[in-house]
């Protein structure tokens, strides 16, 4: 693969953006798990925890990438990624205060690694999809994005809060990739191409656009419904 070609650089940028966008809470877990360590061991705990989490994430992503190479599983993977994208734009707030602080280095590293593995399922599926089966892509993308995730989580969170459109852009990107994944499944190709390469190419453009549109439309609907329900509860509470 040509490392300077658009076929490599564009998916790589997608992987880096997705990893940064979906990993904001992971840095919070790292900080909370290490907050009770002695000052001289906090940096070591953060570094070891992040390194362990990256290794586990790469192993997990490798397995998922190999599974996505099996025919018909791309449809399931694309559907899962579509749900991940909708959940992202829905912007549900989750409390991370249950993460325990540890006074031992091993305990902090273990907590960071396990929490990152559990929290990163969305991330791994999305990155595996964006890599399109190329292990080099997601390994390089993850390694490049880790310093941003660990060192710049507060900056990233601030940018997202200041520019909420970044969340919608990220969700639309995931929807686009999910459409690409579903369209690339052999079953879908067989049903849509009909022996015509041109028709298959047309479908390959429609599916990503449709995926992105679904994410934005469903996300808008859920956000408005959530706002309406919250306003209704506030009105009911005020009338009591």
Uncertain parts:
92-99, 195-199
Q: Which whole number gives the mean pLDDT?
A: 72
E-strand count: 0
Biggest sheet record:
none
SSE string, helices as H and strands as E? HHHHHHHHHHH
Tally of distinct domains: 1
A few lines on this structure:
The protein has eleven helices and no strands. The protein is mainly alpha-helical. It comes from Rhodoblastus acidophilus (Rhodopseudomonas acidophila).
Overview features:
single chain, 240 residues, mainly alpha, 82% helix, 0% strand, transmembrane helix, transmembrane, Integral_membrane_TerC, Integral_membrane_YjbE
Would you give an account of this structure?
- By secondary structure, the chain is an all-alpha fold.
- The protein has one domain (6-239).
- It is 82% helix and 0% strand.
- It contains eleven helices and no strands.
- The protein has helices at 6-22, 24-33, 39-68, 73-90, 105-119, 121-131, 135-151, 153-162, 165-183, 186-193, 197-239.
- It is flat.
- The model is unreliable at 92-99 and 195-199 (pLDDT under 50).
């Amino acid at each position: 693969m040509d490392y300077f070609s658009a076929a490599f650089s564009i998916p790589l940028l997608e992987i880096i953006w997705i990893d940064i966008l979906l990993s904001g809470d992971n840095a919070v877990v790292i900080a909370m798990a290490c907050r009770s360590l002695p000052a001289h061991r906090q940096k070591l705990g953060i570094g070891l925890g992040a390194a362990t989490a990256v290794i586990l994430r790469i192993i997990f992503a490798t397995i998922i990438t190999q599974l996505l190479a099996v025919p018909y599983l791309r449809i399931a993977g694309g559907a899962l990624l579509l749900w991940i994208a909708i959940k992202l734009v829905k912007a549900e707030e989750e409390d991370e205060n249950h993460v325990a602080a540890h006074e031992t280095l091993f305990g902090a590293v273990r907590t960071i690694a396990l929490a990152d593995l559990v929290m990163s399922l969305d991330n791994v599926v999305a990155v595996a999809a964006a890599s399109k089966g190329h292990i080099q892509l997601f390994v390089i993308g993850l390694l490049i994005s880790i310093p941003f995730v660990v060192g710049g989580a507060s900056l990233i969170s601030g940018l997202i809060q200041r520019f909420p459109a970044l969340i919608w852009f990220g969700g639309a990107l995931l929807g686009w990739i999910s459409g690409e994944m579903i369209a690339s499944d052999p079953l879908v190709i067989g049903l849509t191409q009909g022996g015509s390469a041109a028709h298959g190419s047309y479908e390959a453009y429609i599916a990503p656009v449709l995926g992105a549109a679904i994410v934005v439309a469903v996300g808008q609907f859920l956000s408005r419904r959530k706002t309406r329900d919250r306003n209704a509860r506030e009105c009911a509470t005020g009338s009591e």
